[in-house]
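Structural biology now treats backbone shape like a language. To illustrate, our science desk offers a sequence and the tokens encoding its fold:
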Amino acid sequence: MTEETKNLVALFYDQATQKGDAPFLWCKQDGDWKSVSWAAAASQVSALASALKGLGIETGDRVGLISESRPEWPIADLAIMAAGGITVPAYITNGVADHQHVLSDSGASAVIVSTAELAEKVLPAAKNAGGVKCAITMEAIADDQTSGIPTHLWESVIAAQGGDTAALEAAARDLDRGSTACLIYTSGTGGTPKGVMLSHGAILCNCTGSTEMLKEMGLDDEVFLSFLPLSHSYEHTAGQFFPIMIGAQIYYAEGIDKLAQNMAEVHPTLMTAVPRLYEVMHDRIRRGVKQAGGLSEKLFEKTVALGRKEYEDPSSLSLGERIQNALMTKLVRAKVKGRFGGRLKALISGGAPLNYDIGIFFTALGVRLLQGYGQTESAPVISCNPPSHNRIETVGVPMQDVECRIADDGEIVVRGELVMQGYWNNPDATAEAVKDGWLHTGDIGEFDPDGHLRITDRKKDIIVNSGGDNIAPQRIEGMLTSQSEIGQAMVYGDKRPHLVALIVPDADFAAAWAKEQGFDSKALDAVIEDPNFKSLISDAVDRVSGDLSVIEKVRRFTLTAEAFTIDNGMMTPTLKIRRHIIREKYGETLEALYGR
């Protein structure tokens, strides 16, 4: 598949023709992995597209899609596009009001929802949104759950389409590359979510660039383990359409609690995730090693130390250290590789800044971790580290056919087919984000001498203290969250004499400490009130402050048990939500720290 592919549906149909009965989509059912072949998926896409047209969906109509990650998700997504419609994904963690906003703002004509539990929120929202003419549910729901909207069962509408779909498929293949494929709502920084219009070409540009970037690893019979929600633009492109472009199999993970088990079962070769997942993996591996103790712990620590040294300054390794490092590959790194399924070619990190120490940790253990960068408005990938020249401290080099430069004020601006068509029904916001074809990312960055892009901060998130010093909070927050005791952190101090912080303790660390102390309750909100626990967090903050300049040091902090999340339920970088949190909830608490 190349950049000449006309649209995403044509991309899929072409692969399905080549792959036939080979397995494509996998999920766990009754304890066993079950697959849907390429041919079967194509048949369902055509049948569902035909059903949607029969239900009145016309070219350009928006159709909501609310479901967990499962084989039906990409089938529904492709079917909506094949019918000439525009997919409008929404997070399953949304409340009724959130769903209503997305369905109402997008002007959705129909909605596809997976379970009865989700239907309880989605269908009342669809009713109140107005304009939703019908719904399709992947699983059966009770009559009293329909909220008066004509509702059809997935299996029934597909089974009813027994006719020839050749004409529909031909029309779908002819969809214009520049037509809108999906409308993905961003969570923003606290305001009303905006719908990002992405064309078929924008996503195809991303997928082609990813293929070119990673082909040196030998893209063959790849196996993806999909973990992130498909309603997120990152997973929608990198975890769905990129695998389709290279003809890969996709397994849908059962959840973070079973991720390690799933890795051992499906032996993935590629996986995309946000940095928070890698931080969780890091902490769990560290705790497991510490519990093992003895020689195992010593060998592990030696492996990390030598691996880090090899990455940062390979010429500094003595002959003895090189021999030791080779031995550690057999004794330690081989076991770590097995923990990830034994066939992993790379982990891809995106969606938020990757802490350098986390990247080094996995690299030292022989696990290739490639950091990329982008945003929903760029479909979403702008850059990524190539496997042969991985610079952990950067977000890599711009993808093929992507123009990227640094504006006079330091902002990263991007131009190319990947740039969004605009925000849905919001010309003012579109004009502010896209100027003369250049997407203004809102991120501050620089290129190193090798052409690798480095993100230094958000344009609007620089803290200017009362002394007039400019402080980049992102680096400090990353250092804080690299401590095993700290799950999330947000620093604060604009126009103030020094920095303070809002800290969410690491939940696993807090639970383990509570168990050791014999607490009756392991609830985090109870643990954070204990002076001894606060002292442990203070020690972690002090360790970080020891590596910071005077103006960057965190002088005081307060603890909260409520994790920072956005509407997709994932942990998010605090830089995206700082002002919203301060304004809405924690402003007085943080200001009070200056009065102590």
